[in-house]
Amino acid sequence: MSRDEILGQNAEKRGISRRDFVKYCGLITATLGLPVTMAEKVADAMTAARPSVIWLAFSECTGCAESFIRTTYPSIGDLILDVISLDYSETIMAAAGHQAEEVLMDTAEKNKGKFFCIIDGALPTKEGYGMIAGRPMIDIAKDITSKAAATICVGACASFGGLPAAKPNPSGAKSIQDALGIKTINIPGCPPNTINMVATIVHAIVLGSLPALDNLSRPLFAYGQTIHDRCQRRASYEGGYFAKEFGDAGHLNGYCLYELGCKGPETYNNCPTVKFNQGISWPIEAGHPCIGCSEPEFWDKMTPFYVAK
């Protein structure tokens, strides 16, 4: 049996058509900026690697995990869980209490230096805030990240502090990098795009290295250009055509949303190309201004959202 036939059968067992699986691998390849010829290696990585992943959740709203498990194609959540061997996640796992904490410590020890630690949520740094199983969140984070091959922060909160760190920040919440003083890979957004999470891990598996990062530790393949650079309403901006109010003729005709508060010119992300919901659309295409959710201090710096700055 050929490799393609095996891939097709495996995908079909998970309720995914071979066509959708190949399309998904192609999207991952394109997102990483790899040549089309690498799509086959991406497919191999998606079906054979299964690196262990520990997902830690701290001060957050669970929106990033929701985004992850409600990913693009029907049943793709099952595929991703198989591919990356998600061994610990408080949101998804059936275990609870002491049993769950034993799974966490056992997984970290057995896969020391080899597993990926994914974190969503900021870390409270003031005493009395943020406890799990009787331990401060910051102690758990120090322990697990010190044993991981790499720590990937997903979402605005883990990457830059997000809403928990917004003023007045009573818990002293900080990003993982700032709270622990370690190097992380940041995939910010509220929520971030699942494609960028998976692509970062696939990059490590296929190329044997982590992706190049910008000065804020964001993968350049996803955060190398601004929303404005790739926006389909960019021509309206250059031509001086702006929507003035929601629902006016300019808004309905696809004019630039800058005067309605769009933060696209100062926000780095690949939303215009990878989009959301099976690649169907993204906020600006749907008529909503970018709110700058992948930038540092986005809650304090970008609000009020509907005012041009």
Specify the overall morphology: globular
Q: Largest beta sheet, briefly?
A: 5 strands, parallel
What is the spatial order of strands in the main beta sheet?
A: 2-1-3-6-7
N/C terminus separation: 60 Å
Measured by DSSP, the beta-strand proportion falls in 5-15%
The percent range for helix content is 40-55%
Got a strand count? 7
Strand-and-helix sequence, N→C? HHHEHHEHEEEHEHHEHHHHHHH
Runs with pLDDT <50, length 5+? none
Helix/strand-derived category reads: alpha/beta
Total of helices: 16
In short:
The chain has about 300 residues and is α/β, with parallel strands linked by helices. It has 16 helices and 7 strands. The protein has a 5-stranded parallel beta sheet, with helices on both faces. It has a two-stranded antiparallel sheet with strand order 4-5.
Structure description:
- With 309 residues, this protein is an alpha/beta fold.
- Helix content is 40%, strand content 8%.
- It has 16 helices and 7 strands.
- The protein has helices at 3-13, 18-31, 39-48, 63-69, 76-84, 97-110, 137-145, 156-160, 176-180, 194-207, 220-223, 227-230, 234-239, 249-252, 271-274, 298-302; strands spanning 53-57, 86-89, 116-120, 131-132, 135-136, 150-154, 185-187.
- The strands form 2 sheets. A 5-stranded parallel beta sheet has the order 2-1-3-6-7, with helices on both faces.
- Helix 2 packs across helix 3 and helix 2 (18-31) packs across helix 10.
- The longest helix has 14 residues, at 18-31.
- The radius of gyration is 20 Å and the shape is globular.
